[in-house]
Amino acid sequence: MSTQVFKRKQKTQTVFRRFRFRQAAVALFMVAGFAVSASPAAANSKYAGIVIDAKTGQVLYESSADAQRYPASLTKMMTLYLVFEALDANRISLDSKITFSKHAASEPPTKLGIGAGRSITVEQAILALVTKSANDAATATGEFLGGSEAGFARMMTAKARQLGMTKTVFKNASGLPNAQQVTTAHDMARLGIALREHYPQYYKYFSTRSFKFGNTRMGNHNRLLGRVRGVDGIKTGYTNASGFNLVSSVVDRDRSIVAVVMGGRTGASRNAQMEKLIAQYLPKASTRGGGLNIAKVGVSAVPVAVANLDLPKVGPVPELNRWGNGRIDMAYAGTAASQPIVGRQALAAQLAKQKVAVPSPAPAYAPSARVGNAAEAVEAVIDPVTTASTTPAAAVAEPTVRSGWQIQIGATPDEDAAQALLGRAKSAAGNTLSGTEPFTMAYNELYRARFAGFSGQTSAVNACRALKKKGFACWATPN
After folding, report:
1. Residue 26's pLDDT band (boundaries 50, 70, 90)?
2. How far apart are CA 376 and CA 364, in angstroms?
3. DSSP class of residue 133?
4. Hey, where are the domains in the chain?
């Protein structure tokens, strides 16, 4: 054999060996990739998943389902649950206006980009949350329903407990990063089922494919809608800490499941895992059953919020104006009015005359709603109106240490909070409160936040008008 022929043969064998090696490497990679897909929990410490038969409550699949994870924008499922609850109780309507505070307007993307002081309807907020997952709309909605985002977060956590979500804590309405805001795949599945069971008339919003806001059309982040048979919602979520999350509701023929995937490395791998779970476990779901029957408990917040229930006996008489549906704005009818009003009984009678629901006496206090079109959330805390009270507020002894006209901007069970409210009002009002004295007054386990030192009724009323424009509740009183 010639040297040239030998070299050609040797080269051919080398190429063949390299080809076989590459084939083996590709095969090994594919096997490894399949193993990762088949067992995501083993490959990703953030992963958690569960599939629940919505007709029987049976857990069909679970992996780290009760381990705490970060919910990210799955948080907005609870925000929407409380919106649906308020709609169902006729406390708000789809046309009610949600005004954006500076805090809400400053939230990072994704967002609608609404400026402070501007507003959207409740229905627009719902659509923005289920499609674009808008953080600014979520925060504004929380402030609208809870008086402040912190107050709303407490409502969210309380509702989670009522729904049996024992390992969930909420700290904000949007799901933006907070180390203390945690949940589990199991808890999120319960919430998904509760949304479907309790509010089917509003649950349909989760299947919205796109939402037009102004000149912009926003597509739903849930890419399984319209692509995977039977998927009718619910919500996606992502932060760096949480990974890619997804809760899916699936109804196909007589079977129904809710599935959760948390901690995906990418949106695509999360979606692929969800598709795999649906394909594998939907056929195993029961065709019969009455559902998980998660209890639908009470309402989450006092449905009427006003600046303060101890109305002045003389001077400007607050006029009760309906704001939205079930909310009240305290506005003066005029500066010369002097009709006497006797505290809580009179206010309760006025509320009844206007057919406004009187809240339950169970809560010790409730955060107030926004006042008028103010851009900032009203930070005062109020006494609840109760029908059980038979003693006029005026009958309770209270030492008078300051004379002359005063203004009150709220009351709170915490004296430090009352002092902080006074400080914010003083800072915001500028010269309006120049020469006045801020002070707190203990009354019925609350601390009234007041300013004293006005020259007369007119200056006190004018100060209230200026403070209202800054977003503060306010009324004037002769002492």
Report:
1. very low
2. 24
3. -
4. 44-284, 318-477
Q: What is the mean pLDDT of residues 73-96?
A: 96
Tokens for 268? 């695509």
Residue 34: which H helix or E strand, with range?
Answer: helix 3-38
Given 76, 171, 468, 470, which residue is catalytic?
76
Pairing of strands 231-239, 216-219: unpaired
Burial status of residue 157 (CB atoms within 10 A of its CB: 0-12, 13-18, 19 or more)? middle
Active site residue 133: yes
Angle at 367 between CA 364 and CA 368, to 5 degrees: 125
Question: Does the active-site annotation cover 97?
Answer: no
Q: What is the pTM of this model?
A: 0.58
SS3 call for 230: coil
Residue pair 128/120 in contact (Cβ under 8 Å)? The answer is yes
Confidence at residue 411, expressed as pLDDT on a 0 to 100 scale:
80
Query: Phi then psi for 65, rounded to 5 degrees?
Result: -65, -25
Q: Is 248 a catalytic residue?
A: no
Which of the residues 63, 101, 133, 300 is marked catalytic? 133
235 in a labelled binding site: yes
Beta bridge partners of 98: 120
Mean pLDDT of all residues belonging to the chain: 76
CATH architecture of 318-477: 2-Layer Sandwich (3.30)
The CATH code for residues 44-284 is 3.40.710.10
| 93-107 per-position pLDDT tens digit | 999 999 999 999 999
Could you identify the residue written with the tokens 């109106």? 385
